[in-house]
Amino acid sequence: MSEVELNKDFIKQKSNKSDEELSDLAVIDLSLSKISSITPDLFNETFVNIKELNLSSNGITNLEPNVFKNLVNIEKLFLESNKLENLSPELFNGLTNLKHLELGNNQIKNLELNLFKDTVNLRVLYLKFNQITELTQGIFDTLVELEVLFLEGNKISSIHENIFEKNLQLKNLYLGNNGLDTFNENTLRTLVNLAEFSLSHNQLKELAANTFKSQKNLAVLDLSRNLLEHLSPDLFKHATSLRTIYLMENKLKTIDPFIFKELKQLSTIFMQFNEFEQEKLELFLNESVHLILFKPIHHQNYEDENHFDCVIKPNSVSRPTSCKWTSDSTRPASALINVDFKESG
Question: What does the UniProt keyword field contain (predicted)?
Answer without folding.
Answer: Cell adhesion, Glycoprotein, Immunoglobulin domain, Leucine-rich repeat, Membrane, Repeat, Transmembrane, Transmembrane helix
